[in-house]
Amino acid sequence: MKDLFGKAMFDFQTNNSPEDIITETSISEEDDMSVKYLFRSYKEMPKLEQKALQLAFGKTLDVGCGAGSHSLSLQKDHNLDVTSIDISEKAIETCILRGIKKAKVQNILDYEGEKFDTILLLMNGTGIFGKLQNCNKYLSKLKSLLNEGGQILIDSSDIIYMFDEDEDGGKWIPSGNDYYGELVFNISYKGEKEEPFDWLYLDYNTLQNAAITNGLKCELVLEGEHYDYLARLTV
User: Fold this and answer.
1) CA-CA distance, 83 to 66, in Å (whole number)?
2) Which of 184, 194, 154 minimizes the C-alpha distance to 64?
3) Closest of 85, 54, 95, 233 to residue 152, by C-alpha
4) How many CA atoms lie within 13 A of 31 on its CB side?
5) Which of 82, 90, 129, 191 has its CA 20 to 30 A from that of 145?
6) CB–CB of 149/230 below 8 Å?
7) pLDDT tens figures, 37-56
8) Considering Cα of 204, then 207, then 209, then 215, what sign does the dihedral take?
9) What is 109-131 written as a DSSP string?
10) What is the pTM of this model?
């Protein structure tokens, strides 16, 4: 990976002529995303993210932290002990420049040695699972990192609305997909193209079933305005 998301964040943080990130998926056309959005304050966050931060307690792990806006809010406003991880080196450099005390380049599947009271996966937290078949692997790992009484706060969207209806009122879904929430993402930044990557949107019922399979209780905390939701998983 060229780490273009990370480069965009680092450019914004260091005032190095940041540009919009161009995103495209296997079911949607090109769209411009302002890098500034990744640097939003608590007041600028959607209600789902605000709710997740309100529910966070104790020792917290922010998975796929990006530019670190959630971590920063918890560290500054809630005085929590937050560890921020991302697979992007430039994202972690950005977090450190923003004042996040514990930030490291790390894949959650390789994380060892610590347990947490709260694990956050926000901005479509299920995305990093990539494919539906990977849910058990990720949920099992996340569960292993929880302290007793701990929680996983994760958000996603049911993207069934993005598919056309057929004559009978059902949804027309391409046959190549094992599950309609499995997308391939393409991003471009400053004329460079990233390697395509898998990204998973999970409807709530499917997440709930996967959670139960892995010995986790799944609670619907809040629904957003656009088919999105926040869930809380506990042992």
Assistant:
1) 12
2) 154
3) 233
4) 9
5) 90
6) no
7) 999 999 999 999 999 999 99
8) negative
9) GG--S--EEEEEETTTGGGGG-S
10) 0.94
Sheet-wide strand order for 146-157? 102-105, 82-86, 60-63, 116-121, 146-157, 228-234, 217-223
Contact predicate 151/181, CB 8 Å: no
**Alpha-carbon distances, residue 142 vs 41, 110, 168, 201, 234 (angstroms):** 27, 11, 41, 18, 10
Determine the Cα–Cα distance for residues 123 and 155; give it in Å rounded to an integer: 7
Cβ neighbourhood burial of 86 (10 Å; 0-12, 13-18, 19+): buried
Angle at 46 between CA 56 and CA 148, to 5 degrees: 15
Instruction: Report the number of secondary-structure helices (H) and strands (E) in the chain.
Output: 6, 12
Torsion of CA 2, 142, 110, 21, to 10 degrees: 10
Q: Where does residue 17 fall: left (phi above 0), alpha (psi -120 to 50 degrees), or beta otherwise? A: left
* 166-196 confidence digits (pLDDT tens): 666 565 566 566 799 999 999 999 999 999 9
